[in-house]
């Protein structure tokens, strides 16, 4: 199952997410047990009118979905924060930062009679994060503070992007050639994957399209020209979303022709169908386990309560019988107690015990507790 988007995936995804521009935020949701799973419900009026739902599943996924999971009635803190500032705001722009795995959604927010902008930055890499920025780039709020070797992300500071890699779609031939010739990697596929930010799958696809063995280290001038041309072409391919062997692609690839292939009307649709069902299955399994655990706890509580009820019923029955016996022998007991109280005024407990030792009614005299036990 796909667990993260590559930079190239995000490039194609953003093309389709442009449909969100002009929509207004209706509601924001966040899971309580997984505080990195968000759902943004948006509504659009006019052209393309209707409801759209953007799911952001950190650390590595974002896509439009048709499925709304159950969410807590009382949202977690960061969700409350997002609702406060983004409810009814209008999506002005959806974009990818450079060729990074960073999705940005610019919102137009009304403050009194004036309009201002807030940018939601979704970092779809490493641990993942979500940061809301003021127009000047200052962090207004964030999902979690993070410390990196090259940057620190915390509230009230200026947001810093991670150290930039090559903005691959905008590379000139000279820049491309410099990367290829100066790489320290021992194979061209690793250079394509890491230096160009394509990731393993699309690095292999570029090798396939350019007819270059993926384990080759150095390229000839002709191979470099071919690779550069094919690379540029990949960024402008028509979206023909498909899935194959658990992978989801925005266009036709060498890996698209397996027997398990499925075609989709959009890249978002492919991601939604392939990922959401599996996530729901995982979520359902977790909920089932939690439900079973709760049921076991409830069953245990009920069993203990039933045992306690039986004890109480037994106690009630015994006490009721004791009361009946006391009532039946009331005169004898009263006479005995009156005599013992009279004797107690004249003698100590030890002497009292000796006097009544072997008495037909007296079973025990507890001097410490001042208690007399009778047997009826």
Q: How would you describe the overall organization of this protein?
A:
The chain is built from 9 helices and 16 strands. Among the domains are: 1-163, ibrinogen binding protein from staphylococcus aureus fold (Roll), CATH 2.30.310; 329-376, no CATH class. The longest helix is centred in the last third of the chain and has 62 residues, at 267-328. The chain is of the alpha+beta class. The mean pLDDT is 88. The chain has a 5-stranded antiparallel beta sheet with strand order 5-6-7-8-9. A 4-stranded antiparallel beta sheet has the order 1-2-3-4. α4 (188-195) crosses α5 and α5 crosses α6. The chain starts with 6 loop residues before the first helix and ends with a strand.
Q: How would you summarize the topology of this molecule?
A:
Blueprint: H1 7-17, E1 24-30, E2 37-44, E3 50-57, E4 61-65, H2 77-86, E5 90-96, E6 102-111, E7 114-123, E8 129-133, E9 139-142, E10 146-147, E11 152-153, H3 173-182, H4 188-195, H5 199-210, H6 221-234, E12 242-244, E13 247-249, E14 262-263, H7 267-328, H8 330-344, H9 349-355, E15 362-366, E16 371-374
- Give me the secondary-structure category: alpha+beta
The named CATH superfamily of one domain: ibrinogen binding protein from staphylococcus aureus domain
- Strands of the widest sheet, in order across it, are 5-6-7-8-9
Overall number of strands: 16
> What is the CATH class name of one domain?
Mainly Beta
* DSSP helix fraction: 25-40%
Q: How far is the N terminus from the C terminus?
A: 78 Å
Tell the overall outline: elongated
> What string gives the helices and strands in order?
HEEEEHEEEEEEEHHHHEEEHHHEE
CATH architecture label of one domain:
Roll
Which fold name corresponds to the CATH topology of one domain?
ibrinogen binding protein from staphylococcus aureus fold
Strand content: 15-25%
| Uncertain parts | none
Major sheet details: 5 strands, antiparallel
Number of helices: 9
Over the alpha carbons, how many angstroms does the gyration radius reach? 38 Å
Task: Report the average pLDDT across residues.
Answer: 88
